[in-house]
Amino acid sequence: MSVGSYAYVNAKIGALRSKMFTQGDYRSLIEVPTAHDMFSLMKGTVYGREIAKIKDYNLLEVERVLNSLLKDEHEKIIHGLKGNPGQLLAHLYSKYDASLLKEALTLKAAGSDTEEFSKLMPTKKISRTLLDRIGEAKDIREAVEVLKDTEYYKSLNNVLQAYNETGLIYTLTLAIDRHIYQKLWIFLKKLTGKDKISARELIGTEIDIINIISALRLRNYGGDIKELLIPVRFRANDEVLYSLSRVKSLSQFSSEVPKFAYWGVIEGAIKNRDAIVSSLPLQKTGEGNVESLLPVEYELERLLVGKNRKMFYGDRFHIGVPLAHIYLKGIEMKNIVSAFKLKEAKVENVKIEKFLILPP
């Protein structure tokens, strides 16, 4: 895409970035006594116009507003991009459909009633009718059959046996990620020059992180994890991922896993996890449990946030800038929702702030 085209897109993104939350905005939000007070404070922010439409505080409604605004912002950026970069950003939009579908299948696996499904907000591709049919399905197998006419069916159907063997809904949600990112990587390969370099850095790192966490979560899986992971290798190869899946205890990580790009970040998170857990609003659990991975996930996400922020340094005439803005805007939404949830749980302010990934 031409420099002139990116100049137009960057101007649009610059205007959008000027409205993003600062450290001061987050601290003002956190310091109020209750979630209801946070809700009132939000009315005076860039989100105020839409938040004000919610009559009484309801976190579900707040999340809906934030998600809708994120999708609107994504669409605005797509309209400014052409050719292969535009196609990649358009496919990236499928992540909102994928996120909704993962939430619906998670609810079904948990045995949630139809009322819980009614709270889900349909998207352009995942309709209310489809969500209702998933909710009415008698089990996960039937819920997957409901999706027979969607692009996700084949990927989900391929891992049903793994789900039946393990009972882990993660095998199905990972299959959705596998489908989305595999296609995204195909679009990425069509890029050239700085577009390809920046997109590989951001999307490749994101895929690596998903695969790393997945390998650790699937340590008790008896089959070949390669069949479940996203089939893209950036800086975490098969040897590393297999090693991660065989580690019986996280304390064995440094001795059992060969050194690779993210080794230091993961080793540091494991070594300091007691300190991290005590400083964050997380429950400490035994080694090997899913929750014990939260410090690792947290540190890897911080790493990815840093890589996205670097896209705004120096030359900005590449797809890394719009990709980074969309990702960082999503982090802002996640921060705000997390702050509300932690405030509702009466977590002390200092721990709320440490849990969020704040701008510099």
Helices and strands in order:
Elements: H1 3-17, H2 23-31, H3 35-42, H4 48-51, H5 59-78, H6 83-92, H7 94-109, H8 114-118, H9 128-136, H10 140-146, H11 153-158, H12 160-166, H13 170-189, H14 193-217, H15 238-246, H16 253-256, H17 263-271, H18 273-279, H19 294-310, H20 320-344, H21 349-355
Number of strand elements: 0
Helix segment count? 21
β-strand percent reads under 5%
Note poorly predicted spans: 283-291
How are helices and strands ordered from N to C?
A: HHHHHHHHHHHHHHHHHHHHH
The value of Rg in angstroms is 21 Å
Q: In one word, what is the shape?
A: globular
Mean pLDDT: 93
Distance between the termini: 30 Å
What multimeric state do the chains show?
single chain
| Share of helix, binned | 55-70%
Please describe the biggest sheet, giving its number of strands, its sense, and whether it closes into a barrel: none
By secondary-structure content and strand pairing, the structural class works out as mainly alpha
Report what the structure shows:
It is a single chain. The chain has about 350 residues and is an all-alpha fold. It is about 65% helix and about 0% strand. It contains 21 helices and no strands. It has helices at about 5-15, 25-30, 35-40, 50, 60-80, 85-90, 95-110, 115-120, 130-135, 140-145, 155-160, 160-165, 170-190, 195-215, 240-245, 255, 265-270, 275-280, 295-310, 320-345, 350-355. Helix 5 packs antiparallel against helix 20 and helix 17 crosses helix 19 (about 295-310). It is globular, with a radius of gyration of 21 Å. The two termini are about 30 Å apart. About 35% of the residues are buried.
